[in-house]
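FORM 7B: Structural annotation worksheet

SECTION A. Query
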Amino acid sequence: MKKLTLLPLAMVLVFYLVSCEGITKKETKRINTEQTGYSFERIFVVEEGCSVDTLEDCTHVLLEYPVFEGEKMKQANSFLNHRMADILGFGDAESDSLVDLEKAAQNMLQDYREFKKEFPESPQVWNVRMISHLIYEKEDLVCVKMVSESYMGGAHGSLNVSYITFDTTTGSFVHLFDRIENKELFLSLAEQKFRKKRNLTPEENLEKAGYWFPDNKFRLPANIGVDSNGYLLHYNPYEVAPYASGPTDIVIGFEELKKE
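SECTION B. Predicted structure
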């Protein structure tokens, strides 16, 4: 197996390790901002015989994610770590310890090898890519956008977007809707924008139109994030509609919530 582990964060440290398993490359580069210091880590595991430059037909795992500094943000780091481990199928709900993500990635490749032993003629190539970056950092909040794309068999792959917001004073996960003062207005704006995005009239029954809103009752998505433009609402495929309908993105500007 070839392994390439990058930890992208002003001083850069580079290590090359050569073994029977391949090459491991590590880079460290620290990033400073006004609110909090953090680094970006990159873990890249590629199946043996593949080129790290051409991944079209190679089974691989690619993880890119922030690691926050300071005792207060340990909880945030743990949250992100376990979210990625869960997607890789290596999560442990009973454990508070950080998961070895490189090992989790290697285990996914081992599962692929077992699959190929059982079905040697299958042309399937598996891959998991999770790319996370900060989209908002102000006052006591930081918001991470995680885009996960994977294919491990089946008719099609999976593409999901997660917005994960933390309180920088505690490191705890924040449900942004809880911080909205005018929740009724927020819900009304969200439904109006959803209907407009999906070309639905204000009177049209959501459930009869093919969307999964029981009793025609609109609901917010599981993913609500925030950036400089306002609140970001993202409905992933299968959340309120079939896969073929694709995702739905909505932005509710800060100024819109100030209107009476």
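SECTION C. Observations
DSSP finds three helices and twelve strands in the chain. Residues 101-118 form the longest helix (18 residues).

SECTION D. Sign-off
Analyst initials: ____
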